[in-house]
Design brief:
- By secondary structure, the chain is mainly α.
- The protein has one domain (4-54, 87-248).
- The protein is 69% helix and 0% strand.
- It is built from twelve helices and no strands.
- It has helices at residues 4-12, 19-57, 73-86, 88-113, 128-150, 153-163, 166-172, 178-191, 193-207, 218-221, 227-236, 244-247.
Length: 256
């Protein structure tokens, strides 16, 4: 069971990663988990729809439209900043649900990769022992994202990478405190920012090919975007939580 100190040591001593290997591994592994990823995307969309409907009903969320009376820079700035603030409660709820579902997805991916007995529990981290920590992580995630958005595009592009590691770090280290998860995620994100952003960008383009399937195909392809983070974490930290028996027969990276 990794501590923050042992995670930090692994991150600091991480080997150089190969861009092509991460993309290739993600594509090959996607063929194994595409249906599981599809179900996660479907659940995420359903949750997003319900949350959006709820906040629309109670009168929170998007405020006005700056383009109804022609474009005005001041109106646009007011619209941009006010909506970031108004959407904080909704963002916290959506972030918490997303982190819980993605953590469950990564747990399933780990079982598939290690050839363990697969328990397709997409709501595994909705259990009581995880709920309060995931809510706090959702608050932190939303707080960091909101501050970055208030500073416009470039800061948000930067923090997007470390934020992407919240779910994979939590899924493999649910014993860590919220701040330890945040620190580990930012250390991985800072250490491997460029390769993370690049591989997610490429897999994002591949995911967009789902548009060719009458748009609904996106639901089947979108989950590939989450796989580079899975393989980067595997190569940097590994899955030490697995027993030696579980590791028997696990494929080498060269098999992907």
């Amino acid at each position: 069971m990794d501590t923050l100190e042992s995670l930090t040591n692994k991150i600091n001593n991480a080997k150089a990663l190969d861009f092509g290997d991460i993309i290739s591994n993600s594509i090959d592994f996607f063929k194994k988990v595409w249906l599981k990823g599809f179900l996660v995307i479907l659940i995420l969309m359903a949750c997003g729809f319900v949350v959006g409907l709820l906040f629309s009903f109670i009168g929170l969320g998007v405020q006005g439209n700056p383009f109804l009376e022609g474009f005005n820079l001041n109106s646009y700035y007011d619209f941009y900043f006010s909506n970031i603030i108004y959407n904080i409660p909704q963002g916290i709820l959506v972030s918490t649900l997303t982190l819980a579902l993605l953590s469950s997805f990564y747990r399933i991916c780990k079982q598939v990769y290690l050839k363990e007995n697969i328990t397709e529990d997409y709501f595994y981290f909705f259990k009581k022992e995880y709920s309060s920590r995931l809510l706090m992580l959702g608050i932190i995630y939303t707080g960091i994202g909101t501050l970055a958005q208030l500073m416009f595009i470039i800061p948000y592009l930067y923090v997007f990478v470390p934020l992407s590691y919240f779910a994979i770090v939590f899924a493999n280290n649910p014993h860590l405190t919220e701040m330890e998860v945040v620190k580990a995620s930012f250390r991985i994100g800072n250490k491997k920012w460029l390769i993370t952003f690049g591989t997610m960008f490429v897999t994002g383009i591949l995911a967009m090919l789902g548009i060719l399937g009458c748009v609904i195909g996106l639901l089947f392809t979108m989950s590939i975007v989450y796989l580079p983070v899975f393989f980067i974490y595997k190569d940097i930290v590994g899955f030490d939580g697995a027993s030696e028996i579980d590791q028997i027969g696990v494929r080498d990276d060269s098999d992907y």
